[in-house]
């Protein structure tokens, strides 16, 4: 059943496993019960059985409240290191955003929240959110679409937009391959960081050009300020309250809504 | 034992699982034997037991020859679609390079080949190899370092080099954060595509500036021509023999060394 766990959110016909391992349907049910126990012990999600024609079994990844708390504590400890301060309220975060364990655990949070939204794609903009987005796409069993900063020849025909980035305080550009998305589809948008939400609004807008609806937004880090964001209905893992360069204090807290909701 | 499989290449003390699930060391051995059988059935690697002080157990990810062949066939079929031809011998490959299942399977190939090389990092250059690199880093339990095309403020102090890209036939730049790597360490370098190897040579050179040795190179696609590459000792998944635009033929084959060596 290793194959089932290695292909999250993918529906397999029960017959597939019965044939492959030459077992009866009744012992498959017993195997599923056992795997569900193991998954529950580790807080890793569950096997879902769908009855009837077109049914089968699939692995829905998850993450327990305890594991979310451990992840948040690990990230807060790493991010609170004041040598990360770069001036201008910037923090060096690349090592954290590309840490395999952190990416995989955050991907579980987003997969747990977004798996039932009927999305067709996971979308991010290069570069720093790509580790998390790539693992989230894998956990959701969905294609990953990467919006580029500059149109590249290897992307074929592209559509570009300009948008205002509050973080960088200037106009930025983003560009998406025409063949990357299908009009009328739905997307989950993932990024590493959100301050005012300008970049996420830009992603929503460029997807809107293809009639692609954004049905969920997940970010690893959210800045408390400005309070008014350009997008709503997003999920963050951590909230940065303040970066006080004079007193060398980085105030970061866990988003507790992740386990109370 | 789900935790063990979810943290590839990470060494756990046996006590960790005995304490967590309140089991005796003898039944842990029996559990490991059972998991090894399941992993073997699916060709997914093995649990390694290291005896003595500082020992423990860890999951070494792998992939069977059969699964490599299936993956290669899947990729060849997708890549042979002539609507991917962009002119100038370019192919549109972004959807394949960011496909979660393909990234995870390629990551297993590289993890299987490179896990014993004592590497400290997985390194790639933005953007198209990042899906594969991110999964490879996860499978090897190593940090991922992403070299940027342009130095970004959020990277802190950086070192940059210029290099000649045969693919684009002009000088390109790459830039790495000073705090991203530790001098004297070892790296596995991953990229999506290699023609002459200029970009990979550039990565080797910029890592060399930090006294970081490249101990392994993995690419998804290799162009047969030019025969003389700027780097040696690399592993590819597929080899592109020819892109014939006049006759609309894309000739791609599996790298058979992956299962014969």
Q: What this model shows, in words?
A:
Two copies of one chain form a homodimer. Chain A has helices at 2-6, 14-21, 25-42, 65-79, 94-97, 100-114, 130-140, 198-208, 257-260, and strands at 45-50, 56-61, 85-87, 90-91, 121-125, 144-147, 158-165, 170-177, 186-194, 213-223, 234-244, 249-254. In chain A, α4 crosses α6 (100-114) and α6 (100-114) crosses α7 (130-140). Chain A has 261 residues and is α/β, with parallel strands linked by helices. Chain A starts with a helix and ends with a helix. In chain A, the strands form four sheets. Chain A has a six-stranded mixed sheet, sandwiched between helices. Chain A has a two-stranded antiparallel ribbon with strand order 1-2. The first copy, chain A, is globular. Chain A folds into two domains: 2-61, Arc Repressor Mutant, subunit A; 65-260, 3-Layer(aba) Sandwich (Rossmann fold), CATH 3.40.50. The mean pLDDT of chain A is 94. Chains A and B meet through α1, α3, β4, α6 and α7 of A and α1, α3, β4, α6 and α7 of B.
Total individual domains of chain A: 2
- The level 1 CATH classification of the largest domain in chain A is Alpha Beta
Q: What would you call the structural class of chain A?
A: alpha/beta
Give the termini separation of chain A. Answer: 31 Å
Q: What shape does the CA trace of chain A take?
A: globular
Helix coverage percent of chain A: 25-40%
The whole-number mean of residue pLDDT values of chain A reads 94
Number of helices of chain A: 9
How do the strands of the widest beta sheet of chain A line up side by side? 6-5-9-10-11-12
Determine Rg of chain A (CA atoms, Å).
20 Å
Report the largest inter-chain contact. A-B, 51 and 51 residues
Largest sheet of chain A: 6 strands, mixed
Strand content of chain A: 25-35%
Uncertain runs of chain A? none
Number of strands of chain A: 12
CATH architecture of the largest domain in chain A: 3-Layer(aba) Sandwich
């Amino acid at each position: 059943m290793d194959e089932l766990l290695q292909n999250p959110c993918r529906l397999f016909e029960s017959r597939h496993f019965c044939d492959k391992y030459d077992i009866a349907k009744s012992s498959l049910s017993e195997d599923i019960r056992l795997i569900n126990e193991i998954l529950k012990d580790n807080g890793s999600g569950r096997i879902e059985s769908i009855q009837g024609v077109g049914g089968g079994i699939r692995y829905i990844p998850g993450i327990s409240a305890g594991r979310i708390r451990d992840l948040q504590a690990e990230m807060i400890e790493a991010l609170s290191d004041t040598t990360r301060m770069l001036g201008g309220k910037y923090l060096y975060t690349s090592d954290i955003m590309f840490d395999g364990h952190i990416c995989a655990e955050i991907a579980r949070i987003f997969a747990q929240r977004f798996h039932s939204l009927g999305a067709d794609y996971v979308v991010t903009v290069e570069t720093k959110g790509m580790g998390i987005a790539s693992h989230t796409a894998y956990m959701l069993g969905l294609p990953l679409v990467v919006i580029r900063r500059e149109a590249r020849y290897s992307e074929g025909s592209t559509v570009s937009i300009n948008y205002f980035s509050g973080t960088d305080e200037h106009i930025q550009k983003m560009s998406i391959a025409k063949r990357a998305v299908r009009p009328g589809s739905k997307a989950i948008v993932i990024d590493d960081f959100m301050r005012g939400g300008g970049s996420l609004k830009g992603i929503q807008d460029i997807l809107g050009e293809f009639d692609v609806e954004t049905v969920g937004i997940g970010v690893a880090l959210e800045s408390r300020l400005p309070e008014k964001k350009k997008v709503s209905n997003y999920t963050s893992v951590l909230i940065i309250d303040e970066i006080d360069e004079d007193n060398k204090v980085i105030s970061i807290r866990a988003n507790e809504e992740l386990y109370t909701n």
